[in-house]
Design the sequence.
């Protein structure tokens, strides 16, 4: 090795000294890794922040703080915590219903802007007693059930709507689409009970969908597969596949939309031995009815929950897009039709007509 | 014939080896003629040699066959320089002074039985393949190789190199398969550096003009004639050094890290499976320790939360930062590997057991390191040895420290960077005119 290469090596080695920012890394056991952040209005300050920190033993540690801003509250939590509070693993934001009704602009801004919060995290609104829901523990089920409830790899079922932070942010900024956040409530035998969905307009909660309506909402967004619906009193079917096809038209009187929902279903229970076409009819009728209810709600609240405006974007001017929810959406002629294809009726052979 | 009649070359020999008690200058009767012979008693079996020489002389028709015409079987060289004579003597030849001309005649002599016979290899364990291994004797080795590859185009060229130490090096290649450029390079450098002493493989690499510092070996060493034969078929040049029971094949390319030539003794699917496992092993061996540091201290957000919690739990109470922890354990592990490598077989198990207790249980119970680290290190060490060829494992063993340091400093980006870095290094590496990253040695494509 000659002098030059020695010099070069030393120079490269000395660059490590400049890495002061990278050397003060904290080991994983010196960090708190909260998974759930609860945000509600505080008693003495604007916000009350609750962090749920899971542990292997099954106990959930809870850190609470009130402050006038979210980051200040977190700063105070960090001050009192004996470990570094790391929000990198934050997966679920629970927001109190009252807070959601007054508007979530600050929360959304914070969640999107904070560098250490993953925008893949999910949002939900808690009805009823917020503190009680956040402190609710069902031992000995370990640690992360609160997050698992929404996790598509574990506890999620198609009845529950999922809203990720980036989707929520997109929804809050969009002229042509609104979102439904899941509404949950403290559970009795499990952590949470599902209450339906909150209808959001911009960043405010303006109404609610019942669980049944949420189901149709999910079907319309092609998210509902693998779930069971009760068609009639004694019949239930499993939805194997849902597709939605839209036919749109912009007429002089306003936009027209015909949406056809194609459902592939399998019969799972059929106590009265109804023939296939009857089951199909009943499902159609039920979804039609629920769909109409949703549309009525949407019109009343001037929220485009199903994102119909998205379909017309290409046909609208910038101005029209901005006015969609106020001017054009109320004028929309919206028609939902359902086509059901029964793939198999498991053990219930259709009787051959004599 | 008395001393005064000694020729120059005889005096030179006597002067050179005057201090050696095993050097013998004798007067013997060979086919009714008194001749002077010079040899080393430790290297030459004189009675045996004389007996067979006499036999050859008898078989000739009349008893007056001049000694110099004795037999092509025995005579190998006639007019050699005094220095060369000394070398030849050291190689176990018999030097006879011609009774007529006084010139030295050199005969190949029978050796006393100080070479071992062909045995299964010590350090390689072939499964489902030929199990004879190379020995120390050069000619035996070349013979073994020739037996494995019955091909008329096999070319064997022997070179003697060294000025103070004489070493015979045999260069074997398969004409038509071997890239002529490689053969030319190797042969040229052997001739050009004829004067250099070759005692070790490293000396030979410098004779062949290989870089002194190189992360991966630019040659393949094998004890198995079968491997060497396959190396010939692949277009490599195989070099034998006298008294080295290994065939050294040059050049090595990246593919050799995960291929064994004896793989071809298996069905193709199995071969693919073995090679896949070895490739995975390489990746594991290189990145695991670095990845541990990345996930534990720099970028824990990459872990799933469930895993993050249990990892955090396993590190509870560990006093050192992850980087120091890994470095410490890696060093202990390297020491165990190094200690067990050359231990007598009777002590080996003791070290293994003590190492196992230290690394496996006690150190975790003492909360010096986390038990996850033990798993990581064990996995990475095992993965390291899945690679083919002992030589290749060492480069990877060294490189994982580079990965570790880069990971500790720059996190996952450092890990990626260091993996890219090793490929950049490979891309710049060229041995015997062949780029290290080429996929075959046939030289049929432009990048080979």
Sequence:
């Amino acid at each position: 090795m000659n002098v030059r290469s020695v010099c070069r090596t030393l120079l490269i080695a000395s660059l490590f000294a400049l890495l002061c920012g990278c050397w003060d890394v904290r080991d994983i056991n010196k960090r708190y890794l909260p998974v759930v952040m609860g945000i509600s209005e505080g008693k003495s300050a604007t916000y009350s922040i609750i962090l749920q920190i899971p542990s292997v033993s099954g106990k959930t540690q809870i850190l609470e703080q009130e402050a006038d801003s979210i980051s200040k509250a977190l700063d105070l939590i960090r001050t009192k915590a004996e470990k570094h509070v790391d929000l990198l693993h934050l997966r679920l934001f629970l927001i109190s219903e009252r807070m959601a009704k007054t508007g979530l602009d600050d929360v959304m801004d914070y969640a999107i802007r904070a560098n250490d919060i993953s925008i893949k995290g999910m949002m939900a609104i808690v009805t009823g007693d917020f503190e009680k829901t956040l402190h609710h523990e069902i031992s000995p089920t370990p640690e992360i059930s609160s997050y698992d409830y929404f996790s598509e790899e574990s506890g999620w079922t198609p009845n529950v709507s999922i809203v990720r932070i980036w989707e929520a942010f997109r929804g809050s900024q969009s002229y042509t689409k609104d979102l439904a956040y899941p509404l949950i409530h403290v559970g009795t035998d499990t952590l949470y009970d599902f209450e339906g969905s909150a209808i959001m307009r911009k960043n405010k909660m303006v109404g609610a969908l019942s669980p049944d309506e949420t189901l149709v909402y999910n079907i319309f967004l092609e998210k509902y597969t693998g779930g069971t619906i009760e068609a009639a009193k004694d019949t239930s079917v499993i939805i194997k596949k849902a597709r939605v096809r839209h036919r749109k038209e912009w007429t002089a009187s306003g936009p027209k939309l015909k949406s056809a929902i194609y459902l592939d279903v399998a019969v799972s229970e059929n106590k009265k031995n109804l023939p296939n076409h009857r089951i199909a009819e009943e499902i159609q009728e039920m979804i039609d009815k629920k769909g109409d209810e949703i549309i009525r709600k949407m019109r009343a609240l001037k929220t485009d929950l199903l994102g119909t405006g998205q379909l017309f974007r290409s046909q609208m001017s910038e101005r029209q897009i901005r006015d969609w929810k106020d001017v054009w959406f109320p004028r929309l002629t919206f028609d939902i039709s359902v086509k059901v294809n029964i793939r198999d009726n498991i053990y219930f052979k259709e009787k051959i007509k004599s | 014939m008395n001393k005064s009649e000694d020729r120059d070359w005889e005096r030179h020999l006597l002067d050179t080896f005057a201090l050696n008690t095993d050097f013998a200058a004798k007067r013997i009767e060979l086919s009714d003629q008194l001749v002077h012979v010079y040899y080393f008693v430790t290297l030459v079996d004189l009675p045996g040699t004389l007996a067979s020489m006499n036999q050859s002389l008898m078989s000739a028709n009349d008893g007056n066959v001049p000694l110099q015409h004795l037999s092509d079987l025995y005579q190998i060289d006639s007019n050699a320089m005094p220095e060369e004579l000394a070398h030849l003597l050291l190689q176990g030849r018999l030097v006879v002074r011609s009774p007529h001309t006084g010139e030295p005649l050199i005969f190949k002599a029978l050796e006393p039985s100080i070479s071992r016979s062909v045995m299964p290899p010590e350090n390689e364990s072939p499964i489902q393949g030929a199990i004879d291994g190379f020995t120390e004797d050069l000619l035996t080795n070349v013979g073994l190789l020739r037996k494995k590859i019955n091909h008329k185009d096999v070319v064997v060229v022997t070179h003697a190199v060294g000025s103070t130490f004489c070493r015979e090096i045999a260069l074997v290649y398969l004409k038509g398969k071997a890239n002529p450029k490689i053969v030319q390079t190797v042969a040229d450098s052997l001739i050009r550096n004829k004067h250099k002493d070759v005692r070790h493989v490293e000396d030979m690499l410098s004779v062949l003009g290989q870089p002194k510092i190189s992360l991966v070996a630019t040659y393949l060493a094998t004890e198995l004639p079968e491997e060497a034969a396959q190396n010939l078929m692949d277009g490599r040049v195989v070099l034998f050094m006298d008294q080295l029971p290994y065939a050294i094949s040059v050049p090595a390319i990246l593919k050799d890290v995960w291929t064994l030539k004896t793989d071809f003794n298996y069905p193709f699917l199995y071969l693919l499976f073995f090679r896949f496992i070895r490739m995975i092993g390489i990746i594991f061996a290189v990145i695991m320790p670095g990845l541990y540091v990345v996930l534990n201290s720099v970028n824990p957000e990459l872990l799933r939360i469930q895993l993050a919690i249990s990892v955090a739990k396993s590190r509870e109470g560990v006093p050192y930062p992850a980087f120091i922890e890994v470095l410490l354990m890696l060093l202990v592990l390297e020491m165990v590997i190094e200690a067990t490598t050359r231990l007598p077989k009777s002590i080996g198990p003791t070290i293994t057991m003590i190492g196992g207790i230290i690394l496996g249980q006690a150190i975790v119970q003492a909360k010096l390191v986390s038990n996850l680290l033990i798993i990581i290190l064990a996995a990475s060490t095992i993965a390291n040895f899945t690679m083919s060829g002992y030589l290749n494992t060492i480069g990877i063993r060294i490189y994982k420290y580079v990965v570790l340091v880069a990971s500790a400093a720059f996190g996952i980006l450092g890990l990626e960077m260091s993996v890219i870095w090793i490929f950049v290094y490979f891309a710049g590496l060229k041995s015997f005119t062949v780029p290290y990253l080429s996929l075959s040695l046939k030289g049929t494509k432009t990048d080979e």
